[in-house]
Design a protein that fits this description.
alpha+beta; six-stranded antiparallel β-barrel; 13 helices; 18 strands
Length: 347
Amino acid sequence: MKFNSFFIALQHEELQFTGRVSVGDSHLQATFTRVDTDLYTVHFKQQVLLRHHQCIRLGNREIPGDVRLPVLSKYNKRKLRKIARILQNHPDPQADEMVRLLLDVDRFIEAQCMLEFFGVSHDEMLKRLIKSELRGELKLIETLSLLVTSQDNLTLIRQSLREWLETKQEKNARAVPLAHLESHLKIPGASLLFRYLLFSEIQAGAFRILDDQIVFPRQGLSEKEKENIRLIEEEVQRQHKVVFSIDDLLHTSGLSYPSINSALWYLLNEEQVVRLNERDFVFQADLSRIVNRLKKFKRNQGDMIDIPTFREMTTLSRRAIIPLMEYMDARQMTTRIGDRRKILLPV
């Protein structure tokens, strides 16, 4: 893998300078900045492929330099000093040893990007990292990129996650966007580590994930909350709205947005209501009745159905049918073929 910058050991009297570097038959311009005694960061205008302990020559005097490590990320002065001490105290480390040492500088390391520099295969590095994990020296998060973190860092992340959850629960939060937790932990939600951390807490019953929201368990409902839920159920039945939205309830129920939102999150968490999309909801009992009618239709009349037939079967409006069918398509209960649906439900 090519990099723009490297840590290179060489002797020079200036703190910062620009010079020509000879690498084999190539001659490249580079900027040198001293990090510590006889250690510089060397920045090339283009990415170059150098290897561990490769010898370079600087300028007309052909001052020798020893390539020690690629610059893997942006480092402040404190981290640069740490790396300088690592390279001074460990002049000839193995690739996996360097990964472990760098975890004292960065929270996460993708060892995959260092394979070519150290001349190590992916399989060999993976074996070494697994042995390190078994010795409790690090945590291997992802085997393709060889993403690792230290056990101490993993402990701190877990502690931070649990403290965040406790704070939200103390404030009686019902649901919090998953993105808020990503921002707090500074870990991408799509990463394997994020899913790994959430899984253990979900198994412990700390919360559930529902529609990109962290939903906390409820200890019980107040009488007012129970009344709000009863009003919503009655309003949906009165309006004959099998598929309904928060806006629908705002216009007819007399309840406030926070009251409706809180009640729906409770019903979603209890699996009494299903969210069809960003806007529309349906009670689970109503959805189950529709699914049963589809099964009966498939058993008696075949597995293809169009919207007019579906409307006649359910007495629903087109406004309700479209989100229902899109939901069932997404859940592989049906699949769209032209202007009809094929029923995939078992009978």
